[in-house]
Design goal:
The complex is a heterodimer of chains A (450) and B (390). Chain A is flat, with a radius of gyration of 27 Å. The longest helix of chain A has 22 residues, at 408-429. Chain A has helices at residues 5-19, 24-40, 45-62, 70-86, 113-126, 143-154, 167-181, 198-211, 228-238, 257-265, 286-293, 299-309, 312-323, 329-341, 345-351, 368-379, 383-387, 394-404, 408-429, and strands at 101-106, 131-136, 158-159, 185-190, 215-221, 243-247, 269-273, 281-283. Chain A starts with a helix and ends in a 21-residue tail after the last helix. Chain A is built from 19 helices and 8 strands. With 450 residues, chain A is α/β, with parallel strands linked by helices. Chain A has 3 domains: 3-86, SRP54, nucleotide-binding domain (Four Helix Bundle (Hemerythrin (Met), subunit A)); 101-288, Rossmann fold, CATH 3.40.50.300; 303-439, 434 Repressor (Amino-terminal Domain). Mean pLDDT of chain B is 79; it is low at 1-10 and 18-89. Chain B starts with a helix and ends with a helix. With 390 residues, chain B is α/β, with parallel strands linked by helices. In chain B, helix 12 (352-360) links the parallel strand 9 (338-342) and strand 10 (364-368). Chain B has 13 helices and 11 strands. The radius of gyration of chain B is 24 Å and the shape is elongated. Among the domains of chain B are: 92-175, Four Helix Bundle (Hemerythrin (Met), subunit A) (Up-down Bundle); 191-336, 3-Layer(aba) Sandwich (Rossmann fold), CATH 3.40.50.300. Classes of the chains: A alpha/beta (450), B alpha/beta (390). Chains A and B meet through helix 2, helix 6, helix 9, helix 12 and helix 13 of A and helix 1, helix 4, helix 8 and helix 11 of B. Bound molecules: guanosine-5'-diphosphate and magnesium ion. Guanosine-5'-diphosphate (GDP) sits between chains B (197, 199-205, 282, 314, 342-343, 345-346, 368-371, 375) and A (109-110, 140, 192, 194).
């Protein structure tokens, strides 16, 4: 995260601070960084421009120079503007007054429509509905079979026609079928299509006409770049878009496309796809997305928790130790204790942005019990051993293993990896790549108030 | 106060990084152990693979048993089969352009406003920046490119927008120069190409395209349905196998992909096939366990004597800055030898591959220009750059 907006801004404001006031030029420099951060997160060029303009208006209005912490202030403004764009709270789909509610999925090839159709169906069933899936992707080989398989997996009926004919007709027949079978929600999967594909866009418009859906939902891959805007615009003019579903959010993409699409369509983002499994699907949370685009994770919550556990003096001492690479196992144990008090590791990981060199960590890959083992091993060491792990050899190792209920190999591995961690810390405090000094973990802190 | 807080936060983070690094690598190490254990007795007595019914179109028996005459050197550059005869007359450049022509429009606006101006000023640079960013080149690389460009323009005394654009194209082309973009194959034994990438980028379709051009060139091609995860993924490949005349080897849905790939390699060798192309399930590069699974697939191909020469990462042209992260992680896991840039027939320009080549040195080898089996072309920096600016 420190390679992100807050890092950039801390740097600038650190420099500005010493001069005491902000000129118009300073504000522009700050806004340039905001823009870069947005572009790096794949927010569309035009959209970034208008966002920055809004941020500027507010920054000038609120007079940053009077703020105690201008960097945080700017981030707060950007964060708020992002939320304003994304929608301030989660929204619910409207249901038809005369069922079935018809939901039509649209999107580019490979955006994840079919999987999303399955997820949405599962979600709807959980909400007490009786969904019907409709296979209207007659383009991609085995797309119908894919939807049928998904239907079988989650036990939700799938309407399809063999041999496949005209997707418009399939949609129309499916509507009839849903009425007869008492399905109150009908989710139509369609073929992926390029926004510039005349024939297929016309077909999409025809399907829309045929079933007059409550909502056309555009499925957008969270990894999409600048083109998200072009695509959304085309779908809006050719077919109409009533809502957006963001797919593949479980990766490490910042997801700026969400902002772009939202700004262009004006339609709410209803859901987010969070994994390959059909249950990995949730309503969309604009606030979390805003933090993610800024590379902040859910930092605010994390800071709150940190505040409860850490006192400043200790924190300063720790920071010093890390800078000098004097951080030992004793310190590590202490930190681990505190971190643990902040919540379960998996919970905390979920709030974290990607970590340099490691990337976004998938909380599911974690085993809370492993922490217990690490802790047990360190606890079985003497104070001296914790400070100087190098002295841990044969008999000490056996003793520690015995004391912690682990094996000497476990102890060894921990020691080796702690060595790596120490190396990593030296790097964090040191230089980055390509000559450009790019701090990875340790931002230059603005001078501390004495 | 917030600053103090921030420090506290950093310390927590570092503490956590430490904890994470320790715990994370412990887990990885453990998993590695498991993986090698379970693959140690590699699929004893390769059970008779579930072979799909032979394709009707191009009976395999007629295909020549080896790719090239016996004198062929052990490693050769396969000049990937040219476009099918019908389309022969159209030059590749024209074809590339035609496919892209309908996607034009959105982009040219940035440059046309620039061209309408007489001299080069601040706005010229802004327009150029916009143009590059809108192709997904990424703001970081864009700024580097423009810096170099400005210096060059000064040195060479270029003062008109037209000249600048020529220089820019030149600059981009030289960024992409000097790469070997050919697909490597073994001369006298089985060649295996492995396809990897995130979900939905076009791996399976690209395999179909590669199968078609090689079958058309008279080679016997086997496809391994290594995507055992996504519903009906094997069926999809099967359909393509039938359409292109390649044999498809598949396992059960949900089976261990490594074992399916092992069987396929074995079958391909037994049939003296020339080329085995291995499909894999789409996976996000951030999923540690799935990346481990991919490593295992790669190891199995090597162990089974597949003669792996290419590991191709498929990147979708609509991908933004995340493409870099994808390339980095996949490379680290399975040593990617080339990129296939798909869906260039849409309105997205795929500029992220410039950053990928530059940062990681992985050459883009192929370009996907549609959903049909012949919509595949060699990547040509010149056409690609032209297409960015047309
Ligand atoms: N327009 C276009 N669509 C493509 C291209 N390559 C693949 N696709 C489509 O993208 C979708 C996903 O492709 P698929 O091969 O199943 O992706 P996989 O999940 O990576 O195997 C399918 O609808 C393909 O038809 C291409 O070059 N251009
Ligand atoms: Mg596939």
């Amino acid at each position: 995260m420190f390679d992100s907006l807050s890092d950039r801004l801390q740097g600038i404001f650190g420099r500005l601070r010493s001069r005491g006031r902000l000129s118009e030029k300073d504000v522009d420099a700050v806004l340039r960084e905001v823009r870069v951060a947005l572009l790096e997160a794949d927010v569309n060029f035009k959209v970034a421009k208008s966002l920055v303009a809004r941020v500027k208006d507010r920054a000038v209005g609120e007079d940053l120079s009077k703020s105690l912490d201008p960097a945080q202030q700017v981030i707060k403004i950007v964060h708020e503007e992002l939320i304003n764009t994304l929608g301030t709270s989660a929204v619910k789909l409207k249901m038809a007054s005369h069922p079935p509610t018809r939901l039509l999925l649209a999107g580019l090839q490979g955006s994840g429509k079919t999987t999303t159709a399955g997820k949405l169906a599962v979600f709807m069933r959980k909400a007490g509905h009786r969904p019907l899936l409709v296979a209207c992707d007659l383009q991609r080989p085995a797309a119908i079979e894919q939807l049928r398989t998904i239907g079988r997996q989650v036990d939700i009926p799938v309407y399809s026609i063999d041999p496949p004919g005209d997707p418009v007709q399939v949609a129309r027949d499916a509507l009839e079928h849903a009425r007869n079978m008492g399905n109150d929600v009908m989710i139509v999967d369609t073929a992926g299509r390029l926004a510039i594909d005349e024939a297929l866009m016309t077909e999409m418009a025809e399907i829309r006409q045929a079933i007059d859906p409550e909502a056309v939902l555009l499925v957008v891959d969270a990894m999409t770049g600048q083109d998200a805007v072009g695509v959304a615009e085309e779908f809006v003019t050719r077919v109409g878009v009533d809502g957006v579903i963001l797919s593949k959010l479980d990766g490490d993409a910042r997801g700026g496309a969400a902002i772009s699409v939202r700004e262009v369509t004006g339609a709410p983002i209803y859901f987010a796809g969070l994994g390959e499994k059909l249950g990995e699907f949730d309503v969309f949370h604009p606030d979390r997305m805003a933090g993610r685009i800024l590379g902040m994770g859910d930092v605010l919550t994390l800071i709150e928790k940190a505040e409860q556990e850490f006192d400043v003096e200790q924190a300063k001492a720790m920071e010093e130790k890390i800078r000098k690479a004097a951080f030992d196992l004793e310190d590590f144990l202490g930190q681990l204790q505190k971190v643990k008090k902040m919540g379960s590791m998996t919970q905390l990981l979920g709030m974290l942005p990607g970590i340099p060199g490691i990337g976004k960590i998938n909380a599911d890959d974690f085993d809370e019990a492993e922490f217990g083992k690490v802790e047990a091993i360190i606890r079985s060491m003497t104070a001296e051993e914790r400070r100087k792990p190098a002295i841990i050899k044969g008999s000490r190792r056996r003793r520690i293993a015995k004391g912690s209920g682990t094996t000497p190999a476990d102890v060894n591995m921990l020691l080796r990896q702690f060595g790596e961690v120490q190396k990593m810390m030296k790097q964090f405090a040191g230089v980055g790549r390509k000559g450009k000094r790019r701090r990875m973990m340790m931002p230059d802190f603005p001078a501390l108030p004495e | 106060m917030t600053e103090l807080l921030l420090i506290a936060f950093v310390v927590v983070l570092v503490g956590m990084v430490a904890a994470i690094a320790i715990v994370g690598s412990r887990r990885r190490a453990r998993r590695r152990g498991q993986v090698s254990r379970s693959s140690a007795p590699p699929l004893q007595a390769p059970a008779v693979p579930k072979v799909a019914p032979p394709p009707q179109s191009a009976p395999l028996a007629e295909a020549p048993p080896a790719i090239e005459p016996a004198e062929a050197p052990p490693v050769e550059r396969v000049e990937p089969a040219e476009a099918p005869p019908v389309e022969e007359e159209i030059s590749p450049k024209k074809r590339f352009r035609d496919r892209l022509a309908r996607a034009r429009g959105t982009f040219s606006s940035a440059l046309s406003s620039m061209l309408s101006r007489k001299a080069i000023d601040e706005e010229t640079w802004e327009d150029l920046e916009e143009a590059l960013v809108r192709c997904d080149v990424g703001i970081d690389l864009t700024q580097q490119i423009l810096q170099d460009l400005e210096a060059r323009a000064k040195a060479e005394g270029v003062k008109d927008p037209d000249g600048i654009i020529t220089l820019l194209k030149d600059e981009l082309e030289s960024l992409l120069a000097g790469q070997d973009r050919s697909l490597v194959a073994n001369g006298d034994s089985l060649t295996t190409w492995l396809m990897v990438g995130v979900n939905g980028v076009g791996k399976t379709t690209t395999i179909a395209k590669l199968a078609k051009r090689n079958v058309d060139a008279g080679k016997s091609v086997v496809l391994a349905a290594g995507d055992t995860f996504r519903a009906a993924a094997a069926e999809q490949l099967q359909v393509w196998g039938e359409r292109t005349g390649a044999e498809v080897i598949r396992g059960q849905e949900g089976a261990d992909p490594a074992s399916v790939v092992y069987d396929a390699t074995d079958a391909a060798r037994a049939r003296h096939a020339d080329l085995l192309i291995v499909d894999t399930a789409g996976r996000l590069h951030t999923k540690v366990n799935l990346m481990e699974e991919l490593k295992k697939v790669r190891r199995v191909i090597e162990k089974a004597g597949g003669g792996l020469t290419e590991t191709l990462l498929v990147i979708d042209a609509t991908t933004g800055q995340n493409g870099l992260s994808q390339a980095r992680q996949f490379s680290e896991a399975v040593d990617v030898t080339g990129i296939v840039l798909t869906k260039l027939d849409g309105s997205a320009r795929g500029g992220i591959v410039v950053a990928v080549e530059r940062e990681l040195g992985i050459p883009v080898k192929l370009v996907g220009l549609g959903e049909g089996a012949s919509d595949l072309m060699e990547f040509e920096p010149r056409y690609f750059v032209d297409a960015l600016f047309e």
